[in-house]
Amino acid sequence: MGTTTPPRTLAEALRARGDESLARLLRARPDLLSPVPNDITQLATRAGTRASVVRALEHLDRFALQTAEALAVAPDPAPYDTLLALLTGDGADDGDGRDEAGAAITAALPAALTTLREQALVWGEDARLHLVRTARELLAPSPQHPSPTGLGPTVAEATAGMSPGRLQDILTAAGLPATHDPVSAVAALAGLFTDRTRMAELLDTAPVEALSVLDRLVWGPPYGEVTPNPTPPVRWLRDRGLLLPVSTRTVVLPREAALHLRAGRAHRVPEPIAPELAAAAERDPQAVDRAAAGQGYLALSTVEELLKLWNNGGPAILRAGGLSVRELKRAATALDVPENTAAFWIELTYAAGLLASDGETDERYAPTPAADEWLDLPAQDRWTHLATAWLAATRTSGLIGGQDAKGRALSALGPDLDRSAAPEVRHRVLELFASLPPGTAPDPQTLLARLRWERPLRTSRPGGPTTGTQAATGQPSGGDGTDLRSRIALWTTNEAELLGITGRGALSSQARALLGEGPAAAAARLAPLLPEPLDHVLLQADLTAVAPGPLERPLADMLSVLADIESKGGATVYRFTPGSVRRALDAGRAASDLHAFLATHSRTPVPQPLSYLIDDVARRHGHLRIGAASAYVRCDDEAVLNEILADKRSATLRLRRLAPTVLAAQADPGSLLEGLREMGYAPAAESAEGDVLITRAGARRTPPRTPPAPVPEGPPVPDATLLTAAVRAIRAGDSAARVVHRDAPDTTASGSLPRTTPADTLATVQAAAMTGSAVWIGYVNADGAASQRVIAPVKVEGGFVTGYDHTADEVRTYPLHRITGVAELADDQST
Questions:
Q1: pTM of the shown model
Q2: CA distance 212 to 215
Q3: CB-CB contact of 750 with 774 (8 Å)
Q4: Residue 217 half-sphere exposure, CB side, CA atoms within 13 Å?
Q5: How far apart are CA 415 and CA 396, in angstroms?
Q6: Residue scoring higher pLDDT (289 or 176)
Q7: Cys bridge to 602: 158, 495, 539, 799, which one at CB 3.0-4.6 A?
Q8: pLDDT tens across 480-520, in order?
Q9: Could you tell me if 257 and 92 are in contact, meaning their C-beta atoms sit under 8 angstroms apart?
Q10: Burial (0-12, 13-18, 19+ Cβ within 10 Å), 273
Q11: 202, 237 Cβ separation under 8 angstroms
Q12: What is the DSSP string of 542-565?
């Protein structure tokens, strides 16, 4: 194909492209690479399939999409000037700002057209622009799916099948000369609607009510219902072809008439320029970094607290999967956060691989072995681990509490929470944050407007018609007024603040480093902003301890066993109770150990009430012993056992005396322990040998688990190496399919596999191996799939030929018995 010959098909247009242009197409539309097309023709065919075109349209910005929509209602092919006129109008209704809008459209149209060409949605030169047929079908108007432009069918389409007599009546009423040729009649009517002078004269004679009807239809939808006996204004419009019948009760405003009323514009408001991102507030960047660091440290504390909460085995898993509403409320109460926030932390911990199911028969959630490794990391590395997991996660906690397509409730850690668009939206939101100066918080409304402009087909259109692509992808019509992409963006801003990605609404410097340089750089930025862990607390006389800052891990772990957290914030308050002291004794600590621990780590003297509390609980601890008979209670003091038997609260335990110092129960040991503790006693469990059983915290872990894999949004974007190899393979396959080959014995018709005898095949490939030339072969693989290939044989032995396969761009070995035939390439391969 000569360089001056315009392409006749999309395949010819793609064939004329350079390798870099093809690589850009495959990068923008990676679904075209699954699998790698055999040649350019197959690539063009795949690029025109409905699913691929829908996916490509969904990734267009608003103006590129508006350009495609204008081409869908333009003649095919359409000159560049016609397309520009559909976007700018014919100037008949120029008003304030119209000249500026036209200049902006004129400046932006070449870039939008380049985008459509690069993505193989438009092909051809400026004089003959073709929109891919599938895209035209998706964006063209129909009664079921009106065009996004709000335009109806053309006069020719609307009058198809109309009787010649009816056409003559319309021409007469419109003041046009009669003709018996239906084609001429349609052309005359269309010519009237596109002639501004004659159309204006016709509308000047229209009743005012008829003009009101046109005003309601002009910007769409162009369809309206009529009664069997329409009103005089509607009858006037129908008689003159300004309303054409679609069915017995439906009429449509033809496209040519609508364009006249719109002054030639396909869209009411073209949007060639992306909305500006406005600033809601400007803050000190250092204050933003400090606020984000403080929130990030709080995020680490919250995740650690969640892991401790489920350290000995968390809640049971529902039969349908996930966490029950009751367990979510318990977790929210323990973390002292709202339920939706607790759901976010649970999902984040799960996405980071720190939490999983244990896989037991009575399946429960528990920390993973990776949680212990994470807890040993420095605080800044723990934060980057959480932030990186959040950025890549497709599980969307904001959906929890809603319902799926079948009306079932969506639960935390349950199925159906993956939304493949979530990572892309999160990254884009943070990129828009980063585009502002440091310390600047963006306005949420302008942020959403920008996102909707960048991906208009990914959003619903509240109150508006459903587009063809929305119908193809099953998107909602926007009844709730909020699309999923915008909801994910709003969730992202809230979650980023919780996680410490942003501080006071602005992006922190550590988050900028995470996005631009990676986790190591982010950790280095964050480390100086985090508080140093403390090795002491302040004991008070009211049985509390105040931690004036974050504590070192051994101190925090021991204190969490010995005391209960009463309040959190800049300083954490711990309260000592008989139950918390007993918990420390159950873990194997002696009273002397607790006294020594408090004396070592308190900057204030140990209060006497606290010492008395420890000694009192330790004196009674283990006085009662409980073991498995099914369960028994033994005590050296008979009076204590008598007291238990006399207590009405022990009735549910069904105790009976076996010996003066032993009681038997029909409850299991665990229930017996809890029952006696609720009655105010401090029993201890013992083994079959009579030794006290020590209960240590943090003993339950799941088997090694991998974090949940994000659900990808379509095929992954190929890297440069894969793109280069794919382009070479497509070029080689195209050469093989279009190659000019010499005549070979028994060769079939052009385009099918060559046929030669086994002896001729062997002789030809041996000669090619000796001379280093390439040959054209037909090959049938083990599955019976036939293909044509161009190979350069280098070795022929043992019934196999080894050579460089130009089609696959690699060295391959083929069995000779699977080669159907071979032909030498012609000397002149110029095509």
A1: 0.76
A2: 5
A3: no
A4: 26
A5: 11
A6: 289
A7: 539
A8: 335 888 999 999 999 999 999 999 999 999 999 999 999 99
A9: no
A10: middle
A11: no
A12: TTEEEESSPBPHHHHHHHHHHSEE
> DSSP strand E in 69-129: where?
122-123
Does the pLDDT at position 628 exceed 70? no
User: For the segment 246-270, what is each residue's pLDDT rounded down to a tens digit?
Assistant: 888 888 999 899 999 999 899 989 9
Which tokens sit at 292?
């984000």
Handedness of CA 514, 516, 518, 524 (dihedral sign): negative
The answer to whether residues 185 and 158 touch, using CB atoms and an 8 Å cutoff, is: no
Instruction: Report residue 772 as tokens.
Output: 């280093």
Q: Checking phi first, is residue 321 left (phi over 0); if not, alpha (psi -120 to 50) or beta?
A: left
Tokens 């318990």 correspond to 330
Q: How far is CA 260 from CA 100, 173, 203, 206, 242, in A?
A: 22, 19, 11, 15, 11
Give 539: exposed, middle or buried? Use CB within 10 Å, 0-12, 13-18, 19+: buried
Q: Which residues of 190-227 are buried (b: 16+ CB within 10 A; e: fewer)?
A: bebbeeeeebeebbeebeeebeebbeebbbbbbbbebe
Q: By the 8 A CB rule, do 344 and 305 touch?
A: no
Q: For position 752, what pLDDT does the model report? A: 61
Q: What is the mean pLDDT of the chain?
A: 84
* Alpha carbon of residue 200 to chain centroid: 51
List Cα–Cα distances, 294 to 433, 475, 491, in angstroms.
Answer: 20, 40, 20
DSSP state of 534: B
- Tell me the one-letter amino acid at 755: R
Looking up tokens 């409730």 gives 409
Q: At what angle do helices 422-435 and 509-516 cross, to 10 degrees?
A: 120
Residue 186 in tokens? 């349609």
Backbone angles phi, psi at 320, to 5 degrees: -85, 0
The residue among 10, 194, 68, 186 whose CA lies nearest residue 456 is: 68
The 3-state secondary structure of 8-75, one letter per residue = CCHHHHHHCCCHHHHHHHHHHCHHHHCCCCCCHHHHHHHHCCHHHHHHHHHCCCHHHHHHHHHHHCCC
pLDDT band, residue 338 (cuts 50/70/90): very high
Contact 110, 431 (CB under 8 A): no
The two structure tokens encoding residue 786: 């036939």
**Amino acid at residue number 605:** P
The amino acid present at 502, given as its one-letter code, is: T
Residues 158, 152: contact at Cβ < 8 Å? yes
What is the Cα–Cα distance from 400 to 391, expressed in whole angstroms? Answer: 19
Residue 55 to residue 63: CA distance in whole angstroms: 17
